Amino acid sequence: MSEKWPGPSRATGWPGIADREHQAFGWTDMIAFVLLAVSSFLFSQSEARADEGPGMLNEGLGTPNEHGQRKLSLRSLPEPPAELKQLIGKGDITFLIGGTRPSVVDPSRSTGTRGRTFDAETQFRLSYTFQSRCRWSWNGSPNDRELAIAVGYNRLRLNVSHLMWFEKMPERESFWESPLVLHEFDHVRLSTDPRVTSRFLSAVRQQDRVVLTREESEPLITAASRRSGRSRYGRSSILRSLTGADAQPWLKEIVGAEFQKAVDLIGIRYRELDRQTDHGKFAVPRTGELHQWLHP
Known about the structure:
By secondary structure, this protein is an alpha+beta fold. It contains 7 helices and 8 strands, in the order E-E-E-E-H-E-H-E-E-H-H-E-H-H-H. Residues 1-28, 32-56 and 231-236 have low confidence and may be disordered.
């Protein structure tokens, strides 16, 4: 399940450069955010529980929010091991304790299993940003009435953040050794795998030329013809009147499709981790794809 926000966008364009009328340049900045709440669960409450001793103290816990969840300050915990500290930074993790499980607060984002209750849940939030430079041209002869866009993607990024929730506060002194905590960090490893980002960046940048059909081109040609007739530069060519904003629907489609593949891939790996470990009850196999995903 996903939610989409259009995000801010900005487009500027110039009528053209030099005397090559088959070229026009424009810049488009676009930010789009998608929230994917993929729940990962450790133990069924009827099978195992986090330590309910000293870890239940309120030290380091913020004021409960409207759902009874309290933000955990890591300053109240021992120094994490170097590897986990790095994951905390890469994964931009917010830790919550108690209250209602996040995927219960918003059932539309839940991947929970009916009939089971869980001690922990991890959600990841994925977003992408990019800036593009577009060059418009004819695909073949102008008489063919088919446009093409040469695209250069700049500042293309895939960003991830996490929400890690625990029903009960794990033992504070052994927090970083808790099987409950370590299983949730395995999920973070999957969604911060640099190979996922590399695959996304490579797939987008390979699509550096977009050819529009005649049906797609005609409305743009008509609109550009009207704009060129009103240009203060005189009647310039159709191509010179096309901007980065005109290209945006096709760029959104390209980047959005590859982004969704990244989202789906992480979701599949989250589910596979829980399937092979029964939500953390068993150790990760030392061989196989899952082990490779967790150790890039």
